[in-house]
Specification:
Layout: E1 2-8, H1 16-25, E2 29-30, E3 37-40, H2 49-62, E4 68-74
Antiparallel strand pairs: 1-3, 1-4, 2-3
Length: 75
């Protein structure tokens, strides 16, 4: 399964380069196109606990950064 993220930065928030570093450290890869980053997980995993943990970790790391984001997952 692939999960994509669209991000909206704020000039009042953390520097975008620092946000990119956070996402890369969490295993997200930059992509070109409609989305900003992609996270790939095992298709058999579906929306299991590790997927939920990944989203919780992402949310915790982005708290207080001024970033708004949307997630999109596809098989």
């Amino acid at each position: 399964m692939k999960t994509y993220i669209k991000m909206q930065f704020s000039s009042e928030g953390m520097d975008p380069s620092k946000i990119i570093k956070i996402l890369e450290d969490l295993g997200w890869k930059t992509v070109v196109g409609e989305y900003d980053f992609m996270y790939e997980s095992s298709l058999s995993e579906g929306l299991g606990d590790s997927f939920k943990n990944m989203i919780d970790e992402l949310n915790n790391e982005l708290k207080g950064t001024g970033v708004r984001y949307s997630l999109y997952s596809f098989p």
